[in-house]
Amino acid sequence: MMIAAMLLAAAAPAPPLAFNYCVSCHSVDPAETGLPAPNLAGVAGRTAGSRPDFAYSPAMRAAGKGGLVWTRETLNRFLANPRAMVPGTAMQRLPPGAPIAAVVDWLTGDQASSKR
Ligand code: HEC
């Protein structure tokens, strides 16, 4: 437990390997647009479905209008089963065993403080 915490603290802000589960669709380089999925730069604290440069599903836009904001808790819930949380979202379920917690830790930790 302590060793894991130390390893996490020592990690550089670069995406963890776990982000490989996301890069086929998403980017965290703020300059990259036109991808199959919304840019995730600075996603922590952002209202769902709110990037002007992405054509979200009506379901994701409605979720944002309804008050959904991306936090550690909502990201974990969404990634565990996107359509259970946002019925009708265009994002499909990740492969079983995808290291969701590691990606969320990074999106709400190092990435959040370095890419705003
Ligand atoms: C096969 C493509 C694909 C993969 C892989 C994928 N996503 Fe998505 N994701 C999407 C699409 C498409 C949307 C837009 C959903 C909508 O509009 O309903 C989305 C939306 C999201 C959103 C909401 C963004 C916003 O601006 O509101 C988050 C957060 C997210 N994905 C995180 C992830 C993470 C983290 C991973 C990797 C663990 C991942 N996704 C893997 C396609 C993907």
Give the gist of this structure.
The chain is mainly alpha-helical. It is 38% helix and 0% strand.
Overview of the molecule:
With 116 residues, the chain is mostly helical. The protein has one domain: Cytochrome c-like domain (Cytochrome Bc1 Complex, Chain D, domain 2, Orthogonal Bundle). It has helices at residues 2-10, 58-65, 72-80, 82-85, 100-108, 110-114. The longest helix is centred in the N-terminal third of the chain and has 9 residues, at 2-10. Bound molecules: heme C.
Core attributes:
Cytochrome Bc1 Complex, Chain D, domain 2, mainly alpha, 116 residues, 6 helices, binds heme C
CATH class: Mainly Alpha
In terms of DSSP E residues, the strand content is under 5%
Category from helices, strands and their pairing:
mainly alpha
Number of domains: 1
- How many DSSP-defined strands? 0
- What is the CATH topology assignment? Cytochrome Bc1 Complex, Chain D, domain 2
Which small compounds were modeled alongside the protein?
heme C
The arrangement of helices and strands along the chain is HHHHHH
Which radius of gyration do the C-alpha atoms yield? 14 Å
**First-last Cα distance:** 30 Å
User: What about the largest sheet?
Assistant: none
Question: Can you tell me the overall shape?
Answer: globular
Low-confidence stretches: none
The CATH architecture is Orthogonal Bundle
Q: State the helicity in percent bands.
A: 25-40%
What topology does this entry show?
Layout: H1 2-10, H2 58-65, H3 72-80, H4 82-85, H5 100-108, H6 110-114
Helix pairs in contact: 3-5
The protein binds heme C (HEC).
